[in-house]
Amino acid sequence: MTRIAIVGVAGRMGRTLVNAVEQDAEATLAGGIVEPDSSLAGADIGELAGVGKRGVVAVDSLASIADDFDVLIDFTAPQVTLANLAFCAEHGKRIVIGTTGMSDDELKVLDSYRDRVPLVFAPNMSVGVNLTLKLLQTAAKALGDEGYDIEVIESHHRHKVDSPSGTAIKMGEVIAESLGRNLKEHGVFERVGQCGPRTDKEIGFATVRAGDIVGEHTVMFATEGERIEITHKASSRMTFAKGAVRAARWVADKENGSYDMQDVLGLG
Ligand SMILES: NC(=O)C1=CN([C@@H]2O[C@H](COP(=O)(O)OP(=O)(O)OC[C@H]3O[C@@H](n4cnc5c(N)ncnc54)[C@H](OP(=O)(O)O)[C@@H]3O)[C@@H](O)[C@H]2O)C=CC1
Ligand SMILES: O=C(O)C1=N[C@H](C(=O)O)C[C@H](O)C1
């Protein structure tokens, strides 16, 4: 049985993760962490998640439950996640990270832990998106240098704070890598005013933020005469949460290293 603690347990993903752990026969809820001084400290995390009392109360300090869990799942914010990663490395814990929106510097810090802790880090934990990444590799190799323009369009709920989504960036990276391009050089994240015509090798990104959209990603390969669109639509956060719990069970017996969902799902 893998003992799982969830950071940000009162958040959108945190509450869904409680449900996902509950439904997994090989995982158990070992703790939930809320922000320091949160009024939710002391609340039963089952009640927070709407599944009824589970006898595990939310705490506002990870240190206070250090002996209770094996794997931490963190879907919060970049600086919070990096602090928790340091904690896990120091205390011999494992960690699954779903947080997106990290800067290049923050990603370097995350990567510096690869030899100190077993960690899974992925901007999207759904099986569907990770399979889509494989489809994108195939499509990019076949079409990307044959006159097809590549555009990534993502839509999310009104509360999302980072843009483009971590998944959209990952899709762009996978496509760029398949084509021997550098996303830093060829990614176009804004088109405003007299920005000129499209260049052949650019990979464009467009973002929609509206209502309660859980998460939708389309990659368009368009040329004169035809257009191929590869789309993934998430209609429930459970798809991410189930993937994260699967990752937590998978990483529970792994050596130090930085893994992703392709590793967890055996798609690598
Ligand atoms: N990889 C994947 O598959 C997915 C990744 N995500 C990513 O997960 C992240 C969270 O998304 P979402 O759940 O929608 O966001 P929410 O804002 O709903 O949840 C974040 C939670 O973290 C809490 N938090 C903030 N600081 C701390 C702290 N120091 N200690 C403990 N908890 C803290 C917040 O508390 P408070 O509200 O009090 O500030 C909040 O409850 C985002 O980066 C998002 O992009 C989302 C879905 C899928
Ligand atoms: O913030 C979200 O909600 C989501 N974030 C992830 C991302 O940035 O890619 C994954 C998912 O699409 C939902």
From TrEMBL:
GO molecular function per UniProt: 4-hydroxy-tetrahydrodipicolinate reductase; NAD binding; NADP binding; oxidoreductase activity, acting on CH or CH2 groups, NAD or NADP as acceptor
GO biological process: diaminopimelate biosynthetic process; lysine biosynthetic process via diaminopimelate
Enzyme class: oxidoreductase
Dihydrodipicolinate reductase N-terminal domain location: 3-125
Name assigned to this protein: 4-hydroxy-tetrahydrodipicolinate reductase
Similarity-based family: Belongs to the DapB family.
Entry EC number(s): 1.17.1.8
Pathway: Amino-acid biosynthesis; L-lysine biosynthesis via DAP pathway; (S)-tetrahydrodipicolinate from L-aspartate: step 4/4
Predominant location: cytoplasm
